[in-house]
Amino acid sequence: MHMLYDSESFVVVHMLPLPDAGTGETAALPERQLLRHGFEIVDKRSGKEVYLDGAWAELFQQQIMAWQRSTPTQDEVESALDAYAGLAQNPVVLH
Questions:
Q1: How many domains does the chain have?
Q2: Would residue 95 count as lying in a domain?
Q3: Residue 28 domain flag
Q4: Contact between 25 and 19 (Cβ < 8 Å)
């Protein structure tokens, strides 16, 4: 898990599958282990989160790579995250 972004309005975390310590390959999958990488976007204003995986995660990864090339303003990043936050349905639960 890697924190990519944290502001007053949003948190973005990149979730990665855990590699098998012996081989470096993805470990045998216990019930709660990730199959593939994804991104969790938390909208602090609404207290909701959305998890992007599969094609959504790949599109978001492309957005991140574009940001690395162009160095957007915080307003541009927040605007893009706000569009994804519209997908958020799950309330944030502390555990």
A1: 1
A2: no
A3: no
A4: yes
Cα dihedral 52, 32, 47, 74 sign: negative
Cα–Cα distances in angstroms (integers) from residue 32 to residues 17, 21, 84, in the given order: 10, 18, 24
Strand order across the 10-15 sheet: 2-6, 10-15, 38-43, 48-53, 90-91
DSSP code for 28: P
Q: What is the pLDDT of residues 5-61, one digit of tens each?
A: 999 999 999 988 766 545 555 544 454 444 568 999 999 999 999 999 989 999 999
Establish if 83 belongs to a structural domain: yes
Looking at residue 89, the DSSP 8-state letter turns out to be -
8-state DSSP, 26: B
Task: Calculate the alpha carbon distances from 12 to 7, 9, 22, 30, 47 in Å.
Answer: 9, 10, 30, 25, 13
pTM of the model: 0.76
> Residue 13's domain spans which residues?
2-18+34-90
